[in-house]
Protein: Putative dehydrogenase
Amino acid sequence: MENKKEIRIGLVGCGFMGRTHSNGYNRASNFFPDLQYRPVLKAVCSRNPEKVAAFASQWGYESTETDWKALVAREDIDAVDICTPNNMHAEIAIAAAEAGKMVLCEKPLARTMDESVAMVEAVEKAGVKNTIWYNYRRLPAVTLAKQVIDSGKLGRIFHYRANFLQDWTISADLPQGGESLWRLDANAAGSGVTGDLLAHCIDTAMWLNGAIKDVSAVTETFIKERMHQLSGQMQKVAIDDACIFHCHFGNGSLGLFESTRYARGHKALYTFEINGEHASIRWDLHDLNRLEYFDHADESNVRGWRSIHVTDGDQPYMDKWWVPGLGIGYEHSFIHQVADFLKSLETGEPCAPTFRDALQTQKVCEAVLESAASGSWKDTGVSGNI
Ligand SMILES: NC(=O)c1ccc[n+]([C@@H]2O[C@H](COP(=O)([O-])OP(=O)(O)OC[C@H]3O[C@@H](n4cnc5c(N)ncnc54)[C@H](O)[C@@H]3O)[C@@H](O)[C@H]2O)c1
Structure:
């Protein structure tokens, strides 16, 4: 412990992601004992003094702030971690970079391309380490999917299919905006399911299958007006409740993506399937330790979908956990991201996805929304490996 270098964390926002990240910082050193860096929970910031004090005590932060600017200005903070709604990402990230802090920021990068570009410029100009929490990359079965694809086992890829389905906004009585409902307010969120859910699918897709070149999308807003939680007034709903798009990848394969918060019965069904010339793989967040794999080279009498339980020591990250056969959970993706971030400080390598990597996902989200608005195909401007 004494020999480890400290990395002093200042966390902004203590909701859902504040908890997952705090858990990640608390557990990374236990399970990745070889890391040279150790996170220290120096300060947490949220606007409500009682809530932030309770959060600090629950998760072990040394101190609290109620103004993020005060947190960013502190000399005893090395890294600012942004877990606020999307409308705060750009302002906090740019200020943190200008103060010379490392910046870890929740997805999506920001609400708009302008904000996103300014954030990339700020971290690159300041030369500070940066990363975006597209955490699904770091579930072992998803990382294994990347290894299988990169090994060439699938051969030429023909299809990439992904869904992210929820059902929590079906009631017309649900207000928009304010604490915990900011996702329904376009001013706070930027967009609806496109930035919130499809951004995850797009990040994973481009990591696994390369650049998305162009898109054709439709979006729908099923409930047109909702009461705003802060003003008490009925207001137009300006987010996309559902979005479906198809696309061309740079490698010639076709993509099909769907996301909605109106799929009754689905709480967080994130699935993807990739069909190649020789083999296919598929994954389902509800069964996150499994990767399904079909290999056409198997003898025909035993050929079929294999269900690989990704819990063995030679599978990604799993040598750090229990014994073969025992699964891990959603929260481990954040522990892995903390560990990879700390490792990147040792190696000097970027911690992917960086702000610049996440800008590519942002470009695709922007093209999706533009395509839906115009009814025409849109180029994304993304190329190369992500
Ligand atoms: N990686 C993932 O899988 C994942 C999952 C959920 C959310 N997210 C992202 O994480 C971010 C936060 O989402 P959440 O679900 O944790 O939201 P949340 O509503 O649960 O928490 C947001 C927190 O930010 C605080 N906050 C808001 N404005 C603030 C300000 N000006 N100063 C300080 N604190 C402020 C709120 O009080 C609250 O504590 C969003 O960008 C969201 O898109 C990512």
The chain has two domains: 5-135, 137-328+353-379. The pocket of nicotinamide-adenine-dinucleotide is lined by residues 12-18, 45-47, 68, 83-86, 88, 106-107, 133, 135, 180, 196 (CB under 6 Å). Residues 137-328+353-379 form a domain with the Dihydrodipicolinate Reductase; domain 2 fold (CATH 3.30.360.10).
